[in-house]
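step=encode ok
step=design start
structure_in=
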């Protein structure tokens, strides 16, 4: 990709982050982790998915620095990495709530792209 002007951000890293956020399952996992630290088994039960599927999604979320893990005995608990990531996610979820309200009120664009 040719760049014709200087950018203050790395577009490749942003693209990877947004790809990670572009999955409904990962967004659901993040939503649950906003409220409490959870282990793979708890997430799998709540999302009605296999532990291996949840583990895969958590690996993706860890790779983009949104989630961290900590060991407690034999279990590994996952959480939002830090307050900076938590604020970022609150902003994303808040924006989506506003978009849903606009769409349900009949205002704004109704196109499916």
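sequence_out=
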């Amino acid at each position: 990709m040719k760049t014709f002007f200087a950018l203050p951000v790395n577009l490749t890293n942003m693209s990877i982050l947004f790809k990670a956020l572009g999955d409904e399952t990962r967004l659901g996992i993040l939503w649950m982790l906003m409220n409490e630290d959870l282990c793979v088994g708890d997430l799998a039960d709540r999302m009605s998915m296999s532990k291996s599927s949840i583990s895969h999604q958590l690996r993706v979320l860890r790779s983009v620095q949104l989630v961290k893990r900590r060991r407690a005995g034999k279990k590994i608990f996952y959480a939002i990495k830090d307050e900076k990531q938590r604020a970022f996610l609150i902003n994303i979820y808040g924006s989506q709530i506003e978009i849903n309200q606009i769409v349900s009120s009949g205002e704004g664009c109704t196109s499916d792209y």
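step=design ok
step=annotate ok -> The chain has a mean pLDDT of 86.
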